[in-house]
Amino acid sequence: MKLKTLIFIWIIIFWLGNTAFCLPWKILHEQSESQDLNQQELIVKNNPEDLNNLYLLGLIYFNEYDHQQAKTVFEQMLAIEPDLVEAKWGIAECLRREYRLELSQKMLEEIIDRQPDFFPAFISLSYIKFNLKEYDQAAKLSDRIIRRGKKLADRHTLTRAYLIFAGSKGMIAYNGGLLSAFINGSPVFTNLKRARTLMPDSPEVYYGLGCFYFLAPGAYGGNIDKAKEYLEQAIALDPQIIDAYVRLAQIYKFHGDIDKFDYYLNLALSKEPQNFLANDVKSNTCNFICLEPELGI
C-alpha cells in the first residue's frame, strides 16, 4: 500500500476517533413536547439500548420534573456510549436541578468547549449564571443561541433563550444607572414578545411577562394587575414553576395582604426549599428585587 494511502487512512481514523457521536437532539427535543411518557417507557423497555429513544425518555422525565428518573436514563446512555455529549448534558442538568451548581457548571463548560452548537448546555449554564447574579454572562450565553440558533435550536430552547436574555437584561438595567436602564431595559419586552410568538401558551412565557409587568416602572409598561393575571396563568398551566409563586406572593405583599404573601412564599419553599428567589424574598436580601408599596406603580 502506498505511503500516501496509509497517511490518508490514518487521518480518517484519527478524525473519526476525535469526533463526538451526536444524536439528532433538535428533533428529539421537539418530539419530547408531545410524546406520551408511558408510551416512551414501553418503547425503551422493548429496545433498551437505542440512544435516541433513551434520550427522548430522559427529556420527557425532565418535562415531568422527575430528574431522578431522568438521571437514571442518562447514566444508562453513558454506559452504552461513555463519551456521549447529550447524556453528559443530561447529567449536568440533573445536577443543576439538585443545586449542585459548581459541578454542573464545570460539566456544562466542558460540553460547550467540545460541542459549541449544543444549545441546551448554554441554557442550563445561563440559568446557573443568572442565579449566581452573573447577569452579563447569562445574557451572553442566551444571546449566542439567539444569534446562531434560530435555524439550529429547537423551539423550546430558543424560547428559553429569549426569556433568559430578557430577564438578564432586566436585572442589569435595574442594578445599573440611568444609562444602563435605558440601554439594557429596552430589549426586555421585545424579547419577551419574541418568546411569546414562538410559544404563545408556554407557562414560562406567562411567567416572564408576569415578572415584566410586576417589576417594570409604570412609565415603561408596568402593571400590577396584568402581572398577577400572567403569574396565575403560569401556575395554572404548570404548578411546578416555583418562581411564579414567589412573585405572586410579592404582589400580595405589595397590596398589603400578608396572609397570602406568607401562603404563596411558604408554598414555594415547600415545593423547592433551595429555590434562589424564594429564599431571597424570605430573607429580605432582595438580590432579585423586592418591590415595596411605596416604590410601586
Brief overview:
This protein has 16 helices and no strands. With 297 residues, the protein is mainly alpha-helical.
Task: Describe what this molecule looks like in 3D.
With 297 residues, the chain is mainly α. It folds into three domains: 24-115, Alpha Horseshoe (Serine Threonine Protein Phosphatase 5, Tetratricopeptide repeat), CATH 1.25.40; 119-200, Serine Threonine Protein Phosphatase 5, Tetratricopeptide repeat; 218-297, Tetratricopeptide repeat domain (Serine Threonine Protein Phosphatase 5, Tetratricopeptide repeat, Alpha Horseshoe). 73% of the residues lie in helices and 0% in strands.
What's the helix count?
16
The chain-level mean pLDDT equals 91
Overall strand count:
0
Instruction: Estimate percent helicity.
Output: over 70%
CATH architecture of the largest domain: Alpha Horseshoe
- Spatial separation of the terminal alpha carbons: 80 Å
Q: What is the CATH class of the largest domain?
A: Mainly Alpha
Structural class: mainly alpha
Largest sheet: none
Rg, nearest Å: 21 Å
Number of domains: 3
Strand content: under 5%
CATH superfamily of the largest domain: Tetratricopeptide repeat domain
Shape descriptor reads globular
Reported by name, the CATH topology of the largest domain is Serine Threonine Protein Phosphatase 5, Tetratricopeptide repeat
H and E string = HHHHHHHHHHHHHHHH
Residue stretches low in confidence (pLDDT < 50, at least 5 long) are 5-19
Q: Main attributes?
A:
Serine Threonine Protein Phosphatase 5, Tetratricopeptide repeat; 16 helices; mainly alpha; 297 residues; single chain; globular
